[in-house]
Amino acid sequence: MSLGDKALQNERRKPKILIVDDLLENIELIEAYLSVEHYDVITASSGREAIQKLKEEKLDMILLDVMMPEISGYEVCKIVKDDPETQFIPILMLTALSDIEDRIKGIEAGADDFLTKPINRLELKTRVKSLLRVKCMHDRLVADRNSLEIKNRVQNILTAIIPTLLGVVSNEEKKVIINQMTSMVEKTLLDIYHLENRELDFAYAGKVCAEIMNQLGGSFSSEKGEKESSWIIRGTKCPWQGEEARKNPILCTLTRKIFSNITLKVDSDFSVEALKTIGNRNDCCEFLIKTG
């Protein structure tokens, strides 16, 4: 299951809320208030038990009473917020105290919001929903970030392996591999840029070509050519990384084929010519997009 799928699955499951209060009647009241919502509610009757539940459960939110024996709500809050694994769990502190000093103490401990006892049902539901919405957004951002990091690692591995792979196979096998890779890149391009669904030009074709190489780890740019109907794609860093790139001009064929497929989607009269390539020991890559 992908990280994106996991994020969606997490959104569909019931948010898990921990209610912490040393008085049973307070816990029962909050449970009753939240019972009509789609929440998975668990409880703890002390700060010590809350810390244990924190280790055992994957929590989405904590409703935390301030005044408890042994370990206060402030102390529990600080423990939650000081731990990198739990610091983004929102904490709604429940307190009978209304002095500004008490709220400041809660803020310093890391509390995200406060409710003053006696608790108003509508206010409780509203604040819980608001904090859970923020937690959901945070979880999605983390999932997206992790997914991107994994993709980048895989990409770096592949771009390091490809030159070595192509260096040990026969010329016929190289052609097969390059055709397969070009087809995969082409499918991705159609999904991302919708090249077949719009009227495009030299400038956009050059921009897309440069972006693709940069996403693979290269350093490419595009600019208008000297002739009226032409465009230059220039690269100072090859995406097929390392010294192997200079020993495998066949990799430049892969780049040219990718560019050709992009430009043909823009206009069937467009063609790509390799003027310089790092694989042929030039100081940079230069590809010319032209008509005819």
Q: In the CATH hierarchy, what is the class of the largest domain? A: Alpha Beta
Biggest sheet strand order reads: 2-1-3-4-5
Shape: elongated
- Alpha-beta content class: alpha/beta
Tell me the radius of gyration.
Answer: 29 Å
Number of helices: 10
Helix content range: 40-55%
Order of helices and strands: HEHEHEHEHEHHHEEHHEE
How many structural domains? 2
Beta-strand fraction estimate: 15-25%
Layout of strands and helices, then pairs:
Blueprint: H1 3-12, E1 16-20, H2 24-34, E2 40-44, H3 47-56, E3 61-65, H4 73-82, E4 91-95, H5 100-109, E5 113-116, H6 121-168, H7 171-193, H8 202-215, E6 219-224, E7 230-237, H9 244-247, H10 250-266, E8 270-276, E9 285-291
Parallel strand pairs: 1-2, 1-3, 3-4, 4-5
Antiparallel strand pairs: 6-7, 7-9, 8-9
Characterise the protein shown here:
The chain is of the alpha/beta class and 292 residues long. It folds into 2 domains: 3-142, 3-Layer(aba) Sandwich (Rossmann fold); 169-291, Muramoyl-pentapeptide Carboxypeptidase, domain 2 (2-Layer Sandwich). The chain is built from 10 helices and 9 strands. The strands form 2 sheets. It has a 5-stranded parallel β-sheet with strand order 2-1-3-4-5, with helices on both faces. The two termini are 47 Å apart.
